[in-house]
Amino acid sequence: MNIYTRTGDEGQTGIIGGRVEKDDIRVEAYGTVDELNCFVGQARSLLIDVKYADLSIDLLHIQHELFDCGHDLALAKLELHPVKVFAAMIDHLEALIDKYDAETEDLQRFILPGGSMISSSLHICRTVCRRAERNVVALARLQEINPEVRRYLNRLSDLFFTIARVGNLREDIKDVEYERSALVFRTKTK
């Protein structure tokens, strides 16, 4: 099998059920999801300590689900192919957010991205995820998409924020509050 096909040399690429220009918003959307998946893989590579085994397993699962998101975004016509992203996947992300959030202290102000390498890497995942979500929103204005992909990415960015905080906590590094931040978060109910 050859890696190169030469079919994209004129600026078009194949999607599931057709061909589009390489700068099409659909390609931008699933391309950004692919970029996010790469950053998640990079974050996983930092989780070598046993204290991160749970995070590593969860991030690996998310990498597979990001491929599912890319699949659904690459569908030229939803009615011709089954989708792979479902509401149950969003429910699972919410359960992970709740699980990891229970580890962290209450947060009242915005925090600066950073701290440990793990936390910094997960904050990058969060921001790339938000960009992917914006691209999916733009695509949905123009073409039909599986709306669960948009919901998935929205919730996934919340998970990245939460586990970035867990990364600092497990490294015994305190999150740095944005010094001019108003009180923006509610206290957790236990």
From TrEMBL:
Family stated for the protein in its record: Belongs to the Cob(I)alamin adenosyltransferase family.
Subunit-structure text: Homotrimer.
Protein name as annotated: Corrinoid adenosyltransferase
Record pathway: Cofactor biosynthesis; adenosylcobalamin biosynthesis; adenosylcobalamin from cob(II)yrinate a,c-diamide: step 2/7
Protein's GO biological process: cobalamin biosynthetic process
EC id: 2.5.1.17
Reaction(s) the record says it catalyses: 2 cob(II)alamin + reduced [electron-transfer flavoprotein] + 2 ATP = 2 adenosylcob(III)alamin + 2 triphosphate + oxidized [electron-transfer flavoprotein] + 3 H(+); 2 cob(II)yrinate a,c diamide + reduced [electron-transfer flavoprotein] + 2 ATP = 2 adenosylcob(III)yrinate a,c-diamide + 2 triphosphate + oxidized [electron-transfer flavoprotein] + 3 H(+)
SUPFAM superfamilies noted in UniProt: Cobalamin adenosyltransferase-like (SSF89028)
Residue ranges of domain Cobalamin adenosyltransferase-like in the record: 3-166
Gene Ontology MF, one: ATP binding
Native organism: Paenibacillus psychroresistens
Top-level taxon of the source organism: Bacteria
Keyword tags: ATP-binding, Cobalamin biosynthesis, Nucleotide-binding, Transferase
Entry-linked InterPro entries: CblAdoTrfase-like (IPR016030), CblAdoTrfase-like_sf (IPR036451), PduO-typ (IPR029499)
